[in-house]
Amino acid sequence: DAGVTQSPTHLIKTRGQHVTLRCSPISGHKSVSWYQQVLGQGPQFIFQYYEKEERGRGNFPDRFSARQFPNYSSELNVNALLLGDSALYLCASSLGDQRSYEQYFGPGTRLTVT
Amino acid sequence: KNQVEQSPQSLIILEGKNCTLQCNYTVSPFSNLRWYKQDTGRGPVSLTIMTFSENTKSNGRYTATLDADTKQSSLHITASQLSDSASYICVVSPMQRGSYIPTFGRGTSLIVHP
Question: How many CB pairs under 8 A join A and B?
Fold first, then answer.
């Protein structure tokens, strides 16, 4: 059974550009969460989506947005990229609300902004 | 502000030795406390999950303890192996209705030498 998949694996963008990151959850999982992990630090929560609705939003600017599709896959969009957006972006899926269910993380997308 | 502090920041031990990692948190009340293992460049993998009513949870050579009164948790690794070299992250999830924002620690970097 496939785990959480993310694409692309690596990405290089320049300041001011827009980026879209994609995540496919484990089959049967209805919740997807996004995290940003800057080198040397723990992940920071960006969004949680459950049953296609936003259930949580971390302390990130409006340049960050996300959505969940009917098949429960998800996209994270970041506009007007800044150098500080360079990080590993992690997606995690769970059967239900992650307060009660185990989370499974994908391998991440390494974003470099130059 | 909810905080999770981990210590030590880094640790070097010899293969076969035991070690204990610490996690202090201010999140209260909380739903659960989780320990993750994260290999370099990979997504975190869950080791243990404890609710506020539990005080110990084991997963093979990993044993987590929780003292809700002092708001401290520890992760004990027994008979360390080279493959234990990784970052260990403590995550505390608040107990609140509506949106949900987990708080991650910065992690303890463990290096196991032969």
Answer: 60
pLDDT tens track for A76-99: 999 999 999 999 999 999 987 766
- Residues B53-62 have pLDDT tens digits of 899 999 999 9
Instruction: Closest CB to B43: pick one of A45, A57, A107.
Output: A107
Asked if A103 and A46 touch (Cβ cutoff 8 Å), the reply is: no
Q: What are B111's strand-pairing partners?
A: B12
In the predicted structure, residue B50 carries a pLDDT above the cut 80: yes
| Closest chain B CA to residue A38 | B106
Cβ A81 vs Cβ A27: under 8 Å: no
Which residue is listed with tokens 């107990």?
Answer: B95
Instruction: Tell me how long chain A is.
Output: 114
